[in-house]
Amino acid sequence: MYRIVDARDVGLNIRQLVVEAPRIAHKQEPGQFVILRLHAKGERIPLTIKSSDPEAGTVTIVVQSVGKTTAMLNCLRKGDSILDLVGPLGRPSEIENYGTVAILAGSVGTAMALPTASALKQAGNHVVFVEGARSKEMVIFEDEVRQSSNEAYIMTDDGSYGEQGLVTEKLNELIAAGRKIDFVLAVGPVPMMRAVAQLTAPLGIKTMVSLNSIMVDGTGMCGGCRVLLGNKSKFACVDGPEFDASLVNFDVLMQRNSMYREKECQSLKHFQEHTQEELVELRAELAEKERELAELRSIPIKLNPKRRPMKNEAQNV
């Protein structure tokens, strides 16, 4: 069980949760993620790690309500618990001194890009961070975006905040103005990452994208997160989540990500119609799990002095 020690809204339908997870907090590196299961019958979903605090033993995850599980998760409060949290998963971001780095992030991708941006800045890069959002209400972590970079630009689709336009338009503007960009990282919606790849590939700019594939186990066994790189298949959970943007087949990725959309919409609709009942049931189930764990922890561990040694133990005596 993983207890929520802080929960707050950070944008429209976007919530930040600070969760007790000491082992994950001590090992998490930029670019990695967790897989969460809210309750025993719940689905397993990958979530962004915004930061970790090894001393406090906590990780901060950011959740956007897009389906039943994320909507239910965003209803939880400080003091509630999550059944399973597995991580850190995936390969960490490759941190080196490239020169001038452009980080393009949209939606909750901004949260995942923050630790990588900070690490790249500390490695001596000049970091240009371009955050994109549909509107002002969806701009998140602006102060941290500015702290983790040398230059920061906020783009909104409707022009309600920052500059009006897309993150790719800002990148194209910088390149057209003669800025030399040595490395690009794009994190966010698949159409945005594809647009970035289409822009940078002809220019020969090394570009990585962090893919948000459907995942279940997080160990490469289920194959749900399979992505096509050229003529090779890779698993986002163990080989990624970051891949060379010029090799990613974004059409296949978008097709696979939409496989369960109809069922997701049905589940979300049911939850929205029965929110209170489902939350009461969820909290009752998690409370019962807490009691079971408390009982297990209270059982004293006793060693049997008369136990016969195992064969290998006997040989080592």
Describe the structure.
This protein has helices at 22-27, 68-73, 109-122, 142-147, 167-176, 190-200, 236-239, 250-257, 261-273, 275-298, 311-316, and strands at 2-11, 14-20, 33-37, 44-53, 58-64, 81-82, 84-89, 100-106, 126-133, 151-156, 163-164, 183-187, 206-210, 226-229, 232-235, 242-244. By secondary structure, the protein is an alpha/beta fold. It folds into two domains: 2-89, Translation factors (Elongation Factor Tu (Ef-tu), domain 3), CATH 2.40.30.10; 100-257, 3-Layer(aba) Sandwich (Rossmann fold), CATH 3.40.50.80. The protein has a seven-stranded antiparallel sheet. A hairpin with a 4-residue loop joins strand 4 (44-53) and strand 5. The relative contact order is 0.12.
Main traits of this protein?
317 residues, alpha/beta, Rossmann fold, seven-stranded antiparallel β-sheet, 11 helices, 34% helix, 29% strand, globular, oxidoreductase activity, FAD-bd_FR_type, FNR_nucleotide-bd, PyrK_electron_transfer
What kind of sheet is the major sheet? 7 strands, antiparallel
Overall 3D form: globular
Strand content: 25-35%
Task: Give the uncertain stretches in residue-range form.
Answer: none
**CATH architecture tag of the largest domain:** 3-Layer(aba) Sandwich
Q: What is the average per-residue confidence, as pLDDT, rounded to a whole number?
A: 88
Query: How many beta strands in the DSSP annotation?
Result: 16
Radius of gyration: 22 Å
Name the CATH superfamily assignment of the largest domain.
Answer: Nucleotide-binding domain of ferredoxin-NADP reductase (FNR) module
Keywords: Coiled coil
Organism: Candidatus Sulfuritelmatomonas gaucii
InterPro entries: Cbr1-like_FAD-bd_dom, Dihydroorotate_DH_Fe-S-bd, FAD-bd_FR_type, FNR_nucleotide-bd, PyrK_electron_transfer, Riboflavin_synthase-like_b-brl
GO molecular function: oxidoreductase activity
